[in-house]
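Fold it.
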Amino acid sequence: MSNNPVRISIRELYKIFGADPQGALQHVKDGMGKVDLLDQHGHVLGLHDINVDMREGEITVIMGLSGSGKSTLIRHLNRLIEPTSGRIEVDGEDVLHYTDHQLRDLRRQHMTMVFQKFALLPHWTVLDNAGMALATRGFERHEYEEEATKWLARVGLEGNENQYPHELSGGMQQRVGIARALTSNAPIMLMDEAFSALDPLIRTDMQDLLIELQQELKKTVVFITHDLDEALKLADHLVILKEGSVVQQGEPQDILMNPNDPYIIDFISDINRARVLRVRSVMDETQDIATDCAGDVDANDNLESVIARSGGETSYRYRVMQDGEPVGMLSMKRLVRALVPTDASQERNNAR
């Protein structure tokens, strides 16, 4: 687990939609589930007892199928949706107690949001859209132009400042959305299905861009997705929701190696384990490094690259390096065992 300080802390968060959410809340706390709550009381359980810490400088990915509550959850962080019960702390302050002035300050200066549908103003130029956050704070165009231009160039849109959104491709429009978020200089970025509307190749490019920017800027990013491959690629901390509840959360590699629920097993059963598992997840941590190594591999290499390097030879062992220091050993036999799905996953696949 990271030692980074907690920037956002969610505790005992519930959201119930309906005419009497407080009355319905007691039924939920007494054990009533989502289906019965709707059938018997006409209320929808959106979030159920959410407890998540989001750490400074990390990407927390919240994923789940449609209707799992992930977009509802992210909209609680800046209070676009009000909770039925619970606490949401940002830097130790419960934002549910904020005044209207404090809430505006939170949204304008401390949190910024990147939307799935881009949310660009069609009658504003690319430059003005990128500078929107500063414009809403009262800055004139000549005051935010340099900052907006800098971030447009950083996301690959240098020279497009005077175009309008309809003149750009979908991927370019989303780059404007990211530049807008960066121009705000907010330390927290909320990204709600930000890449879901993009074609696969463009989506991959945007994921790579986010990773590159994050390595440099160390923002606190909350990223919503329904795509497991995207979640595994981006997440430092992964939270998986089902019907408004957290099923499992933790470091993505640990979830892959130790799924704790049939729902998670179903999610991961069809992924390419060699492509997503990292050497650090399957190595033997040791300072006793063997002398007959076939070579060095990095702790963050995926297993697919090690298989290619070994040429399929299962007798090899590799020294594992991290930041220039040896941290363990990886045998190809252990690597091959890690590629076999869990027993529960295998049984479910055999039953299909």
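The mean pLDDT is 91.
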